Queue: 4 jobs
Job 1
Amino acid sequence: MDQQQRPVLYTYFRSSSAARVRIALNYKGIDYESRAVNILKGEHHSAEYTCLNPGGLVPYLVIDGHEFSQSVAMLEYIEETRPSRRLLPSDPARRAYVRAIVGAICCDIQPLQNLRVLKALPESQRAEHAAKVISSGLAVVEQMLEKTAGLFCVGDEVSLADCCLIPQLYNAHRYAVDLARFPHIRAIEERASALGAFRRAHWSRQYDCPKELLAE
């Protein structure tokens, strides 16, 4: 296993799942190569990509001679092999709280409003469906944060929960979800968005982002 080889992240600029991994890699100072897979052009279904990743999804991470699908598995591997700048608390209960928030986002919100689901709906219904799913899911997360939040999702340190929450908020803004009733979420978004690891991971700063959407 060559841990000196530069990790490769197959990504798409607007994928919230890919953004979770970008944030974690950035936060831990891991230099990596991004390789864009354009979902709108169907590149995730190409023979070249499905040969690498049979699931045909992004992200896909090649690291330390291993290849991983599923963003949460990637986050756990990055944390376990690069323990500096922890993204999981040392306390078992706090770790469980982090994982519960991660699950609420990655299992209960994001899969129900991703592109595969939206494409199964009439175009006229897609935005409304996405907004409803995101809003109801974030309401649950907000209640969780009432018990766990400090400066960030669980206490005062950045965790995997923040890595997952902030990209989900990209979609919330895209579908005009009113975040006014989620004060904990709004405060965490403001703090996290001020950190370089999160700023660099934003979809508008990715090299495959269309020029007209790039951040200035």
Note: Residues 8-85 form a domain with the Glutaredoxin fold (CATH 3.40.30.10).
Job 2
Amino acid sequence: MCSKQTSRISRRGFTLVELLVVIAIIGVLVGLLLPAVQAAREAARRMQCSNNMKQLGLALHNYHDVNKRFPPCSIDGGGKIGILVRLLPFMEQQNLFEQVRYDGNYVQNLPMAQNRIDGFLCPSGPEQFSVSTAANEADLYTTHYYGNSGPIGTNAQTNQTYVRDTTRENASFGEYATDGVFQLRSNLRFADITDGTTNTIGMGEVSYEQYKFYRAWTRGLYWYNGVALLSTKNHKWPINAAKNGGFTMTFNNGGYGSQHPSGAMFGMMDGSVRFVSETIDMTAYRAAASRGSGEVKGL
């Protein structure tokens, strides 16, 4: 008669030490992976922002082809609409453009800004809405792209101060540059950009959290004992300077910058788009904002 022996199978699980080691390894791998994922996402957002700027540049060229001039930054009367409103027909927004009113004041055109235009917003921008406390501007979409009104400072080529319109300035709004591409009631053409379209900034990016003057994308200016520029900005401070709290911010000198690491997007008047580093020499930066002051430096 055969005897049966019961065999025991021993099963061994993870020890606590082994489990902690595995968790630590997984944590390291996740820590290595997350920055790569975030970098890839930012690269995609930056590419989309560049495409937005490219489309705005093409719209400016098409506007010039039709009207034989570039759009004014606004008109100090009527609806006070900004640059972006005038570009709507050239960005497949003709139906929205037909809603524009030129009588009365800017309030009549504010309802248009209930429409979100993806091409007016940087995907990395933290704020998509007007930050105005006025009841009639609450929850309206803003823009992250602004026209170049010109440089503020000294022309290193001539050692002369860049031209300004001091009659339209007050301390609260800041200076009013006039050597850029977009002015009140202007009729500037390609021929007026004597520094060359390749060397002259058309539009730049303002899309960082510290900027406190976002307004509805329909608006071009605000007038009260001087002009507050709402669709253009001066080039006075270094790129991204406001993110470090380095100066007192005003409407006109809000400072270009972005949430993209180390710089911001700029569209040149030849239609090209450039990512400009925040460390760019200020002489070259202001020279690129001037349309006809004869500087030799460029971006």
Note: The chain has four helices and ten strands.
Job 3
Amino acid sequence: MKKTWTKNEARNVLVRYHMINTSDLLEGERGILDVIKRLQSIQYDPLNVVGINTCLVMQSRVNDYKKDDLKKLLYEKRALIDGFDKMMSIYLTKDFPLLEEVRKHTAAMHYNTLVYRNQTEALDYINEVKNSLKEKPKYASEIELGGRSKSGWGQTKTSSATLDYLFFRGDIGVRNKKNTLKQYDLIENLIDNSDQKSPFKTRAEFIKYYLLRRIKSLGICRDKNGVHLSGPYISDKHIRSEYLIQLVSDGLIEEIEIEGLSDRFYVPKEATQLTNQIVDKIAFIAPLDNLIWDRDFIEMLFDFKYRWEVYTPKNKRLYGYYVLPVLYKDQFIGRIEFAKHRLNDELKILNYVQETQSISVEDDVFIEAIKRFKYYLKQ
């Protein structure tokens, strides 16, 4: 029989699963890796107002996180890697072979983009670009092959379009980064067994794995088409329904009902075995945090409507350019916008809106949250 949770119970489980405002002792590199293992991957976005999205995800969970701490695990220890899962992400390097099907899908989509932009000439330079990278790792600016297009968007340099395609396909990876600029290298120089193909013998094996992976990324997954279920195969509701049944039958997920909500919901077995507890803390949530991937579900569950307004014309924004939801215990209580932060500038709050007057928050809890955020931004 399906379990039925109240909205309060579902909110509590979801926040505890995501290890935000909880008793989990997440610290240092171990804490970072524990977050990645729980969430599978974290979406990457280059916008940097008070740190990029991946860093903001970590600061809301890992107690002593500073905004450059991910770099060591990505570009020195290589426990993590840049790649594609739900869009551009970072994930455990050991998962690289498991996501071969995602790379095939992403490369095919990018090929269509090259066709649309009339840039398929980029494919003629694949071998030359790879040979160039055999000499040493390089930034796109260090490779000059082919000409330039007059496109007003996307890569205008042919060799840069080639690099993009090879990265999407998984032939090359990121050796290092200078801000958003990628230094590329052949994938075999970055990780062991990079030529290992997917271990899945059938498409069905991959779909089952990938759907479970996405449910783990979400914590509570609504069986409804949307960006939270984007990706090869799992975005198709008919395919998804078949494999949800299998995952339930295998005991890897459970189907639940939430009082007052009509959708079907699925949770990984880990979400039903939590022992951590919610504590008296405030966290500032990243705009692309896994917790809020399914914005419509968050609105239904928390009665909190959040839309990222960075691409909304200024005169049409309701709250601001880069606004972070504010989570107190397991309730969204408002939103905050910080000024663009550089180096060791003083942290400035442009706006704070508290929306839930019925929830009492002590001043020292908010002050402590700001102190932790300042610590995270220190160089």
Note: The radius of gyration is 22 Å.
Job 4
Amino acid sequence: MDAYNTINDILVHLFNEIWELEKKAIITEEFKDITNNDMHIIEAIGVSGKTTMSVVAKKMKITAGSLTTAVNGLVNKKYVMRARGEEDRRVVYIWLTEKGEKAYYHHEEFHREMTNAVLNRLDEKEIPVLMKTLDGLSEFFRGYSSEE
């Protein structure tokens, strides 16, 4: 197979493979009550304290309504806490509970293992090439999504 076809094949299949593998790796017995999407919302909320619904919706590139639906489930399952702002009641703050932080770190560990699996196969000279390549791919996706 030539370089073009090999790269095309890898790109076409890689995203779905990562999504499926991630689902199997992170939705364990302990976290069986949430979805892969829920785990990414937990990741977007982060562990640095309170954030707002609007910040998380923007980070995830979803509507506030879609986020509200997902956060309602995460609040009911005790992964997330939510409160309206004291000064401005229109602002809704969210943050992770201890259970949510545990899920966050579990997900982060999967990403660390995935990244290390790639880095461990490369020598020091290859890492900048991979970074440049992935940056170019990322730039393509950002440009493609901004055209819509």
Note: Residues 3-26 form the longest helix (24 residues).
